[in-house]
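Box 3.1. Reading complex inputs
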Amino acid sequence: MSTPDNTFAQTPEPPYYAVIFTSTRTPVDEGYGAMADRMVELASRQPGFLGVESARGADGLGITVSYWASLEAISAWKSNSEHRVAQATGNRKWYEHFETRVARVERAYGGPRT
Amino acid sequence: MSTPDNTFAQTPEPPYYAVIFTSTRTPVDEGYGAMADRMVELASRQPGFLGVESARGADGLGITVSYWASLEAISAWKSNSEHRVAQATGNRKWYEHFETRVARVERAYGGPRT
């Protein structure tokens, strides 16, 4: 993995932006894990990237939340050419269904044992 | 479970709000599953509740995103008395660490096979 598992994103004080990507997978694996790792690596080098958190449960539902400094940073990531190829391949073979939501984080707080 | 597994929230057109709750668990189980189910059931009866999506990966990181019509609906849910007891118990024994982020969803789109 290009990022450690089980990690929280270290985000600054709000406001900033979140992309909430919820998905279910097809049974097709062909390169999925390598693509997912590569996208995290690539995203983390984009200007305005703040962090990412990801989980996929045993029931198959996955949630990945990436955090960004601005809507412009999100647009730039969305149109990154290698990311576009991954999106197209995801649409065609890896994802059964997905929802993407772009949101402005207005408040954040953590607890305990930070 | 009080909600079906592996389901997407059926949210309206933006804007609406999301509460992104990212957590790691302690090894303590004592009533955790029952509490989690009960909180989903209780939240879903709150005014302004729009839906919830939840995943916890094998590495232990969990992400639950609940969707709400307004910040007022989120405040009312946060101060719900039974929810407050669950929050206090969670702080004390179920959660190793958590982050809560309140965000305004501005754009949403899905793909394929809706």
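In summary: Chain A touches chain B at residues 5-9, 11, 14, 18, 20, 22, 24, 53-63, 65, 91, 95-114 (CB under 8 Å).
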